[in-house]
Input
Amino acid sequence: MGIIMKDVWKKFEQTELTHSSIHHLLAINSLLKEHGYSRSVDIAHHLNISRSSVSVTVTKLRDKGFVREDKNRFLNLSKKGEELVNSVLSKRCIVEQFFREVLDLSSQEAEIEACKVEHLLSEPTGKKLITFMGYFLSGQPDVVKFRKGLEAFNYVCTSTKECDACELDCFFKHNGR
Amino acid sequence: MGIIMKDVWKKFEQTELTHSSIHHLLAINSLLKEHGYSRSVDIAHHLNISRSSVSVTVTKLRDKGFVREDKNRFLNLSKKGEELVNSVLSKRCIVEQFFREVLDLSSQEAEIEACKVEHLLSEPTGKKLITFMGYFLSGQPDVVKFRKGLEAFNYVCTSTKECDACELDCFFKHNGR
DNA sequence: ATATTTTGTTAAGCATATCTAACAAATGTT
DNA sequence: AACATTTGTTAGATATGCTTAACAAAATAT
Output
Protein backbone atom coordinates (compact mmCIF):
# COMPACT_ATOMS: atom_id res chain seq x y z
CA MET A 1 0.00 0.00 0.00
CA GLY A 2 2.95 2.32 -0.49
CA ILE A 3 2.89 5.62 -2.30
CA ILE A 4 2.26 5.65 -6.03
CA MET A 5 5.29 7.59 -7.10
CA LYS A 6 3.44 8.77 -10.20
CA ASP A 7 1.27 10.86 -7.87
CA VAL A 8 4.02 12.43 -5.81
CA TRP A 9 3.41 15.76 -7.50
CA LYS A 10 -0.18 15.73 -6.22
CA LYS A 11 0.97 15.77 -2.60
CA PHE A 12 1.26 19.50 -2.97
CA GLU A 13 -2.53 19.85 -2.95
CA GLN A 14 -3.19 17.07 -0.51
CA THR A 15 -2.65 19.05 2.63
CA GLU A 16 -5.15 18.77 5.45
CA LEU A 17 -5.74 22.50 5.29
CA THR A 18 -4.88 24.95 2.56
CA HIS A 19 -2.21 27.57 2.89
CA SER A 20 -4.97 30.13 3.21
CA SER A 21 -6.83 28.30 5.98
CA ILE A 22 -3.65 27.81 7.94
CA HIS A 23 -2.98 31.52 7.77
CA HIS A 24 -6.43 32.17 9.17
CA LEU A 25 -5.47 30.01 12.14
CA LEU A 26 -2.10 31.72 12.48
CA ALA A 27 -3.89 35.07 12.41
CA ILE A 28 -6.19 34.03 15.24
CA ASN A 29 -3.18 32.90 17.20
CA SER A 30 -1.33 36.17 16.64
CA LEU A 31 -4.34 38.26 17.51
CA LEU A 32 -5.01 36.32 20.68
CA LYS A 33 -1.43 36.85 21.77
CA GLU A 34 -1.36 40.47 20.77
CA HIS A 35 -4.78 41.72 21.81
CA GLY A 36 -6.23 38.90 23.86
CA TYR A 37 -9.12 38.35 21.49
CA SER A 38 -9.83 37.68 17.83
CA ARG A 39 -12.88 38.49 15.76
CA SER A 40 -13.56 38.03 12.04
CA VAL A 41 -12.83 41.66 11.24
CA ASP A 42 -9.52 41.44 12.98
CA ILE A 43 -8.53 38.48 10.87
CA ALA A 44 -9.64 40.32 7.74
CA HIS A 45 -7.41 43.25 8.63
CA HIS A 46 -4.54 41.02 9.64
CA LEU A 47 -4.60 39.09 6.36
CA ASN A 48 -5.66 42.06 4.26
CA ILE A 49 -8.67 40.32 2.72
CA SER A 50 -12.41 40.95 2.89
CA ARG A 51 -14.67 40.14 5.82
CA SER A 52 -16.84 37.94 3.68
CA SER A 53 -13.94 35.79 2.71
CA VAL A 54 -12.94 35.40 6.32
CA SER A 55 -16.50 34.58 7.26
CA VAL A 56 -16.64 31.68 4.81
CA THR A 57 -13.25 30.30 5.74
CA VAL A 58 -13.81 30.59 9.47
CA THR A 59 -17.13 28.76 9.14
CA LYS A 60 -15.29 25.88 7.51
CA LEU A 61 -12.58 25.93 10.15
CA ARG A 62 -15.28 25.85 12.82
CA ASP A 63 -17.00 22.91 11.13
CA LYS A 64 -13.71 21.07 10.89
CA GLY A 65 -13.07 21.63 14.57
CA PHE A 66 -10.04 23.90 14.40
CA VAL A 67 -11.80 26.98 15.71
CA ARG A 68 -14.39 27.61 18.41
CA GLU A 69 -16.70 30.53 18.88
CA ASP A 70 -17.53 32.44 22.01
CA LYS A 71 -21.05 33.41 23.07
CA ASN A 72 -19.95 36.84 21.82
CA ARG A 73 -18.58 35.44 18.56
CA PHE A 74 -15.01 35.84 19.66
CA LEU A 75 -12.81 33.20 18.10
CA ASN A 76 -10.52 30.74 19.81
CA LEU A 77 -8.40 27.86 18.67
CA SER A 78 -9.44 24.37 19.66
CA LYS A 79 -6.79 21.95 20.86
CA LYS A 80 -6.59 20.62 17.32
CA GLY A 81 -6.18 24.15 15.99
CA GLU A 82 -3.54 25.00 18.53
CA GLU A 83 -1.55 21.90 17.70
CA LEU A 84 -1.59 22.74 14.03
CA VAL A 85 -0.56 26.35 14.61
CA ASN A 86 2.16 25.11 16.85
CA SER A 87 3.58 22.70 14.35
CA VAL A 88 3.53 25.30 11.60
CA LEU A 89 5.13 27.96 13.77
CA SER A 90 7.82 25.59 14.88
CA LYS A 91 8.63 24.78 11.29
CA ARG A 92 8.52 28.43 10.30
CA CYS A 93 10.88 29.28 13.08
CA ILE A 94 13.42 26.64 12.21
CA VAL A 95 13.23 27.11 8.45
CA GLU A 96 13.60 30.84 8.80
CA GLN A 97 16.58 30.33 11.05
CA PHE A 98 18.11 27.96 8.52
CA PHE A 99 17.71 30.45 5.70
CA ARG A 100 19.18 33.24 7.77
CA GLU A 101 21.96 31.51 9.64
CA VAL A 102 23.05 28.82 7.21
CA LEU A 103 22.21 30.21 3.77
CA ASP A 104 22.79 33.81 4.80
CA LEU A 105 19.54 35.20 3.39
CA SER A 106 18.38 38.57 4.69
CA SER A 107 15.73 38.54 7.40
CA GLN A 108 13.10 39.61 4.92
CA GLU A 109 14.03 37.02 2.32
CA ALA A 110 14.15 34.35 5.01
CA GLU A 111 10.68 35.31 6.20
CA ILE A 112 9.21 35.17 2.71
CA GLU A 113 10.84 31.88 1.80
CA ALA A 114 9.88 30.30 5.10
CA CYS A 115 6.27 31.42 4.73
CA LYS A 116 5.95 29.70 1.38
CA VAL A 117 7.34 26.45 2.67
CA GLU A 118 6.55 26.11 6.34
CA HIS A 119 3.24 24.29 6.14
CA LEU A 120 4.36 21.91 3.40
CA LEU A 121 7.20 20.23 5.26
CA SER A 122 6.46 17.05 7.15
CA GLU A 123 6.97 16.67 10.88
CA PRO A 124 10.00 14.37 10.42
CA THR A 125 11.63 16.94 8.16
CA GLY A 126 10.98 19.65 10.72
CA LYS A 127 12.50 17.61 13.49
CA LYS A 128 15.55 16.67 11.47
CA LEU A 129 16.06 20.30 10.63
CA ILE A 130 15.85 21.18 14.29
CA THR A 131 18.55 18.68 15.11
CA PHE A 132 20.73 20.08 12.38
CA MET A 133 20.22 23.66 13.52
CA GLY A 134 20.81 22.68 17.12
CA TYR A 135 24.20 21.40 16.11
CA PHE A 136 24.94 24.22 13.70
CA LEU A 137 24.31 26.81 16.41
CA SER A 138 25.95 24.84 19.22
CA GLY A 139 29.23 26.71 19.14
CA GLN A 140 31.32 23.54 19.26
CA PRO A 141 34.86 24.00 17.91
CA ASP A 142 34.32 21.68 14.94
CA VAL A 143 31.22 23.61 14.01
CA VAL A 144 33.01 26.93 14.25
CA LYS A 145 35.65 25.69 11.84
CA PHE A 146 33.00 24.37 9.50
CA ARG A 147 31.22 27.69 9.45
CA LYS A 148 34.40 29.62 8.74
CA GLY A 149 35.13 27.26 5.89
CA LEU A 150 31.61 27.73 4.56
CA GLU A 151 31.98 31.49 4.55
CA ALA A 152 35.18 31.25 2.55
CA PHE A 153 33.89 28.60 0.18
CA ASN A 154 33.29 29.29 -3.48
CA TYR A 155 31.69 26.49 -5.39
CA VAL A 156 32.72 25.64 -8.91
CA CYS A 157 30.83 22.98 -10.76
CA THR A 158 32.89 19.95 -11.57
CA SER A 159 30.19 18.29 -13.60
CA THR A 160 29.31 15.41 -11.33
CA LYS A 161 26.83 12.84 -12.49
CA GLU A 162 24.75 13.06 -9.35
CA CYS A 163 22.36 15.67 -10.63
CA ASP A 164 20.05 15.16 -13.59
CA ALA A 165 19.49 18.85 -13.95
CA CYS A 166 23.16 19.30 -14.76
CA GLU A 167 22.63 17.54 -18.02
CA LEU A 168 20.69 20.55 -19.14
CA ASP A 169 22.05 23.87 -18.14
CA CYS A 170 22.45 23.65 -14.45
CA PHE A 171 22.76 26.32 -11.83
CA PHE A 172 26.03 24.73 -10.81
CA LYS A 173 27.65 26.05 -13.94
CA HIS A 174 26.67 29.63 -13.32
CA ASN A 175 27.07 29.79 -9.65
CA GLY A 176 29.03 32.75 -8.37
CA ARG A 177 28.93 33.39 -4.68
CA MET B 1 7.76 50.69 -2.66
CA GLY B 2 9.03 47.70 -0.74
CA ILE B 3 7.07 44.59 0.06
CA ILE B 4 4.02 45.04 2.22
CA MET B 5 4.89 42.57 4.94
CA LYS B 6 1.21 42.13 5.70
CA ASP B 7 0.92 40.37 2.35
CA VAL B 8 3.88 38.03 2.69
CA TRP B 9 1.54 35.09 3.13
CA LYS B 10 0.02 35.81 -0.31
CA LYS B 11 3.34 35.20 -2.05
CA PHE B 12 2.46 31.54 -1.95
CA GLU B 13 -0.19 32.04 -4.63
CA GLN B 14 1.70 34.65 -6.57
CA THR B 15 3.83 32.31 -8.61
CA GLU B 16 4.19 32.87 -12.33
CA LEU B 17 2.81 29.40 -12.99
CA THR B 18 0.91 27.10 -10.67
CA HIS B 19 2.37 23.92 -9.27
CA SER B 20 0.16 22.02 -11.68
CA SER B 21 1.26 23.95 -14.77
CA ILE B 22 4.89 23.52 -13.86
CA HIS B 23 4.40 19.79 -13.62
CA HIS B 24 2.90 19.78 -17.09
CA LEU B 25 6.12 21.39 -18.32
CA LEU B 26 8.25 18.95 -16.34
CA ALA B 27 6.26 16.11 -17.87
CA ILE B 28 6.93 17.36 -21.38
CA ASN B 29 10.61 17.59 -20.54
CA SER B 30 10.72 14.06 -19.13
CA LEU B 31 8.83 12.61 -22.06
CA LEU B 32 11.06 14.33 -24.59
CA LYS B 33 14.11 12.92 -22.89
CA GLU B 34 12.63 9.50 -22.44
CA HIS B 35 10.77 8.96 -25.72
CA GLY B 36 11.87 11.80 -27.93
CA TYR B 37 8.37 13.22 -28.23
CA SER B 38 5.48 14.38 -26.09
CA ARG B 39 1.78 14.47 -26.87
CA SER B 40 -1.18 15.42 -24.67
CA VAL B 41 -2.07 11.80 -23.93
CA ASP B 42 1.45 11.11 -22.81
CA ILE B 43 1.26 13.97 -20.36
CA ALA B 44 -2.09 12.71 -19.12
CA HIS B 45 -0.60 9.30 -18.42
CA HIS B 46 2.53 10.73 -16.90
CA LEU B 47 0.62 12.94 -14.48
CA ASN B 48 -2.22 10.50 -13.99
CA ILE B 49 -4.95 12.98 -14.88
CA SER B 50 -7.50 13.16 -17.71
CA ARG B 51 -6.76 14.15 -21.29
CA SER B 52 -9.28 16.98 -21.10
CA SER B 53 -7.54 18.48 -18.14
CA VAL B 54 -4.22 18.35 -19.94
CA SER B 55 -5.80 19.86 -23.03
CA VAL B 56 -6.97 22.90 -21.12
CA THR B 57 -3.71 23.44 -19.29
CA VAL B 58 -1.53 22.92 -22.36
CA THR B 59 -3.59 25.46 -24.29
CA LYS B 60 -2.86 28.00 -21.59
CA LEU B 61 0.81 27.13 -21.55
CA ARG B 62 0.92 27.54 -25.33
CA ASP B 63 -0.79 30.93 -25.10
CA LYS B 64 1.67 32.01 -22.45
CA GLY B 65 4.58 30.97 -24.62
CA PHE B 66 5.99 28.12 -22.58
CA VAL B 67 5.03 25.38 -25.02
CA ARG B 68 5.06 25.10 -28.80
CA GLU B 69 3.17 22.72 -31.02
CA ASP B 70 4.38 20.76 -34.00
CA LYS B 71 2.49 20.47 -37.29
CA ASN B 72 1.63 17.03 -35.96
CA ARG B 73 0.57 18.38 -32.58
CA PHE B 74 3.66 17.10 -30.86
CA LEU B 75 4.66 19.34 -27.99
CA ASN B 76 7.96 21.06 -27.34
CA LEU B 77 9.24 23.50 -24.78
CA SER B 78 10.01 27.02 -25.90
CA LYS B 79 13.18 28.65 -24.65
CA LYS B 80 11.11 30.24 -21.90
CA GLY B 81 9.67 26.86 -20.98
CA GLU B 82 13.05 25.21 -20.99
CA GLU B 83 14.50 27.87 -18.73
CA LEU B 84 11.71 27.40 -16.26
CA VAL B 85 12.01 23.62 -16.27
CA ASN B 86 15.69 24.01 -15.81
CA SER B 87 15.44 26.28 -12.84
CA VAL B 88 12.89 24.02 -11.17
CA LEU B 89 14.90 20.87 -11.81
CA SER B 90 18.04 22.47 -10.48
CA LYS B 91 16.23 23.42 -7.31
CA ARG B 92 14.64 19.99 -7.03
CA CYS B 93 18.01 18.37 -7.39
CA ILE B 94 19.69 20.47 -4.76
CA VAL B 95 16.83 20.40 -2.29
CA GLU B 96 16.49 16.66 -2.60
CA GLN B 97 20.19 16.28 -2.04
CA PHE B 98 19.96 18.48 1.02
CA PHE B 99 17.16 16.42 2.51
CA ARG B 100 18.99 13.17 1.83
CA GLU B 101 22.57 14.06 2.64
CA VAL B 102 22.18 16.65 5.36
CA LEU B 103 18.89 15.83 7.04
CA ASP B 104 19.21 12.11 6.42
CA LEU B 105 15.71 11.61 4.99
CA SER B 106 15.09 8.49 2.93
CA SER B 107 15.22 8.84 -0.85
CA GLN B 108 11.47 8.62 -1.05
CA GLU B 109 10.85 11.18 1.69
CA ALA B 110 13.41 13.48 0.13
CA GLU B 111 11.71 13.23 -3.24
CA ILE B 112 8.29 14.01 -1.81
CA GLU B 113 9.48 16.91 0.29
CA ALA B 114 11.50 18.37 -2.58
CA CYS B 115 8.57 18.12 -4.96
CA LYS B 116 6.37 20.17 -2.66
CA VAL B 117 8.93 22.90 -2.28
CA GLU B 118 11.07 23.06 -5.42
CA HIS B 119 9.09 25.58 -7.42
CA LEU B 120 8.46 27.89 -4.48
CA LEU B 121 12.03 28.72 -3.62
CA SER B 122 13.60 31.80 -5.18
CA GLU B 123 16.65 31.68 -7.39
CA PRO B 124 18.90 33.28 -4.74
CA THR B 125 17.83 30.65 -2.24
CA GLY B 126 18.59 27.90 -4.74
CA LYS B 127 22.02 29.29 -5.43
CA LYS B 128 22.87 29.71 -1.78
CA LEU B 129 21.80 26.16 -1.15
CA ILE B 130 24.05 24.99 -3.96
CA THR B 131 27.00 26.74 -2.40
CA PHE B 132 26.22 25.16 0.94
CA MET B 133 25.88 21.69 -0.55
CA GLY B 134 29.05 22.16 -2.57
CA TYR B 135 30.90 22.75 0.65
CA PHE B 136 29.06 20.08 2.60
CA LEU B 137 29.97 17.44 0.01
CA SER B 138 33.49 18.72 -0.62
CA GLY B 139 35.22 16.17 1.56
CA GLN B 140 37.40 18.78 3.26
CA PRO B 141 38.72 17.66 6.66
CA ASP B 142 36.81 20.30 8.59
CA VAL B 143 33.63 19.22 6.88
CA VAL B 144 34.25 15.57 7.65
CA LYS B 145 34.60 16.40 11.34
CA PHE B 146 31.47 18.50 11.23
CA ARG B 147 29.48 15.70 9.69
CA LYS B 148 30.70 13.17 12.24
CA GLY B 149 29.72 15.57 14.98
CA LEU B 150 26.31 16.05 13.40
CA GLU B 151 25.68 12.33 13.31
CA ALA B 152 26.49 12.01 17.00
CA PHE B 153 24.55 15.10 18.01
CA ASN B 154 21.42 14.93 20.08
CA TYR B 155 19.62 18.17 20.56
CA VAL B 156 18.02 19.12 23.85
CA CYS B 157 16.00 22.28 24.07
CA THR B 158 17.49 24.88 26.39
CA SER B 159 14.62 27.25 26.04
CA THR B 160 16.21 30.08 24.13
CA LYS B 161 14.26 33.20 23.42
CA GLU B 162 15.04 33.17 19.73
CA CYS B 163 11.99 31.25 18.68
CA ASP B 164 8.46 32.51 19.17
CA ALA B 165 7.08 29.05 18.75
CA CYS B 166 8.86 27.96 21.89
CA GLU B 167 6.57 30.10 23.91
CA LEU B 168 3.85 27.68 23.08
CA ASP B 169 4.76 24.05 23.02
CA CYS B 170 7.68 23.84 20.70
CA PHE B 171 9.14 20.93 18.83
CA PHE B 172 12.42 21.69 20.56
CA LYS B 173 11.05 20.31 23.77
CA HIS B 174 10.01 16.99 22.35
CA ASN B 175 12.85 16.41 20.00
CA GLY B 176 14.40 13.03 20.18
CA ARG B 177 16.77 12.03 17.44
C1' DA C 1 -34.88 55.28 22.37
C1' DT C 2 -33.50 56.50 18.04
C1' DA C 3 -29.95 56.90 14.75
C1' DT C 4 -25.33 55.65 13.14
C1' DT C 5 -21.54 52.72 12.69
C1' DT C 6 -19.44 48.33 12.96
C1' DT C 7 -19.59 43.53 12.31
C1' DG C 8 -20.94 39.19 10.28
C1' DT C 9 -23.43 36.64 6.65
C1' DT C 10 -25.19 35.58 2.28
C1' DA C 11 -25.44 35.86 -2.75
C1' DA C 12 -23.39 36.38 -7.19
C1' DG C 13 -19.29 36.71 -9.91
C1' DC C 14 -14.38 35.52 -11.27
C1' DA C 15 -10.35 32.52 -11.58
C1' DT C 16 -7.95 28.03 -10.86
C1' DA C 17 -7.90 22.98 -11.61
C1' DT C 18 -9.95 18.78 -11.63
C1' DC C 19 -13.51 15.38 -13.41
C1' DT C 20 -16.89 12.86 -16.87
C1' DA C 21 -19.35 12.67 -21.15
C1' DA C 22 -19.98 13.76 -25.84
C1' DC C 23 -18.03 14.68 -30.09
C1' DA C 24 -14.59 15.65 -33.91
C1' DA C 25 -10.50 14.62 -36.11
C1' DA C 26 -6.78 11.86 -37.01
C1' DT C 27 -4.68 7.07 -37.19
C1' DG C 28 -4.76 2.26 -37.87
C1' DT C 29 -6.87 -2.15 -39.34
C1' DT C 30 -9.05 -5.26 -42.26
C1' DA D 1 -12.80 2.11 -48.82
C1' DA D 2 -15.08 1.25 -44.61
C1' DC D 3 -14.84 0.42 -39.82
C1' DA D 4 -12.57 0.81 -35.33
C1' DT D 5 -9.49 2.91 -32.21
C1' DT D 6 -6.85 6.64 -30.46
C1' DT D 7 -6.29 11.40 -29.66
C1' DG D 8 -7.66 16.07 -28.78
C1' DT D 9 -11.29 19.45 -27.72
C1' DT D 10 -15.37 21.26 -25.74
C1' DA D 11 -19.21 21.55 -22.45
C1' DG D 12 -21.01 20.95 -17.93
C1' DA D 13 -20.11 19.66 -13.26
C1' DT D 14 -17.47 20.07 -8.67
C1' DA D 15 -14.42 22.26 -5.36
C1' DT D 16 -11.24 26.00 -3.59
C1' DG D 17 -10.68 30.91 -2.50
C1' DC D 18 -10.96 35.49 -3.61
C1' DT D 19 -13.92 39.68 -4.77
C1' DT D 20 -18.02 43.23 -4.29
C1' DA D 21 -22.77 44.29 -3.03
C1' DA D 22 -26.71 43.89 -0.22
C1' DC D 23 -28.57 42.95 4.08
C1' DA D 24 -29.17 41.67 9.05
C1' DA D 25 -27.65 41.88 13.57
C1' DA D 26 -25.10 43.93 17.14
C1' DA D 27 -22.65 47.65 19.36
C1' DT D 28 -22.02 52.63 19.93
C1' DA D 29 -23.38 57.46 20.02
C1' DT D 30 -26.39 61.21 20.56
Observations:
- The beta strands of chain B are 67-69, 75-77.
